[in-house]
Amino acid sequence: MSASRGVRHAYATVLTIALAAIAAGCTSLLAIGEWASGLTQDQLATLQAARFKGRYIPPSESAIRRTLQQSDAAALDGILADWMAEHGIPDAIACDGKTARGSGNATTKTRHLVSAVIHGTTRVIAQTAVDEKSNEIPAMYTLLDALDFTGTLVAADAMHTQRELATDLV
């Protein structure tokens, strides 16, 4: 992405910085931008940040925002799920739905997601959006269809104690 002064940042660098900032507890684009601006030259070099006049330059908040807005969230989610799947089938996963904080405003409804998390960790291995005019139950089928969970214990809340879902899992 290009900033107003012409510095170009690699997509992978901007995405990695945004993900690292989120893992560090940042919950807004402004916080991610501030976190990025606090990275050392060695950290920026490791992240392969752009160079300008002999110094590594972190992406600005606006560059991070534009990059994330232009990203294909479904494709990115698929890539991350595939990467997580390469690390082996977990012993247990927990599935639950959550409303994405800050995802709605005066003109758009909040987004609700159903996610599968490796039990005992915070590693999300798959997630899917709940249709606006539906609930978590149909989304759970979509979520589980994307996973190979042979030999995996699947835990979910009471909403998912459905005979048909249990039959599909077995």
TrEMBL record:
InterPro entries: ISAs1_transpos, Transposase_11, Transposase_11-like, YbfD_N. Residues 92-169 form the Transposase IS4-like domain. Transmembrane segments: none annotated. This is Uncharacterized protein. It comes from the Bacteria. The lineage of its organism: Bacteria, Bacillati, Bacillota, Clostridia, Eubacteriales. Residues 4-84 form the H repeat-associated protein N-terminal domain. GO terms for biological process: DNA transposition. GO terms for molecular function: DNA binding; transposase activity.
